[in-house]
Amino acid sequence: MATDQKPNMKTLFTLPIAPSGSQPGGTLTCTTPLSPPDSRIYILTLSSPPDNRLTSPLCTALLSALDTLEFSFPSGVVITTSSLPKFFSNGLDLTHALSDPSFLPFSLYPLFRRLLTYPMPTIALLNGHAFAGGLMLAMHMDYRIMNPSRGFACINELDFGVPLKPAMSAIFRAKCTPGIYRQLVLEAHRFGGTEAMEAGIVDLTGGLEDVIKFVGERKLTEKGKTGIYGLMKMEMYRETVEGYLTAEGHEREEERVRRIVEGEKERKEKGRREVKGSKL
């Protein structure tokens, strides 16, 4: 399949991605193919070097772009990709995410919720690595198409010792089989494009030309015309949308996890005391 051919594009709008901490910021550009005419295919291209880390400004830019497309343009299909050849997204800026308590409930989760319930079909074109939060971002879209020869998709939190939040796990439970979920989370397995397609993580391998062909074959530009596409997705992913991706759900789950962590700490302390006592 083609991976490097790009159709001629018309730029619809460009939004800034403000700097945040160590991240220099960048731009989000929305384009549409000049051919076929009136394709109603909207391509959001992230360009926030070096690796499109998910920060509050990047989330804000994506949310603004989604609003602009919904309320100012005809219903169609939204494709999200990257201008950076190596990365779709390298996930969260952990320093930013861990230091700002508002980031998850008021920046990241609203973006995930918006994508999961968006009233048009959404596609992630994974041109390079989609690590951790980058893969989570893609999983909240309806379809994923991945470069067959460059980049890996993985959830590597196990490798750097940061447990997944409940809202982050929820999308993989909803969209992956138990065996693939185990490989992703408990093995931090890196899936190349072909293996990711075989595992059902992505729907197809290829590049932008292949995405546009995929859209045409499935008539995806027509799916939002009746106005119920978003409602169908709200019901389809009800547990994730209502249970995890709200500020209230975040607060409730944070308290639940806190109790679990405290219980584990007490259990380990008790176990150490008992083992030490048995050796006396």
TrEMBL record:
InterPro entries: ClpP/crotonase-like_dom_sf (IPR029045), Enoyl-CoA_hydra/iso (IPR001753). One of its GO terms (biological process) is fatty acid beta-oxidation. One of its GO terms (cellular component) is peroxisome. One of its GO terms (molecular function) is delta(3)-delta(2)-enoyl-CoA isomerase activity. PANTHER family: ENOYL-COA HYDRATASE-RELATED, ENOYL-COA HYDRATASE_ISOMERASE FAMILY PROTEIN. This is ClpP/crotonase-like domain-containing protein. It comes from Neurospora hispaniola.
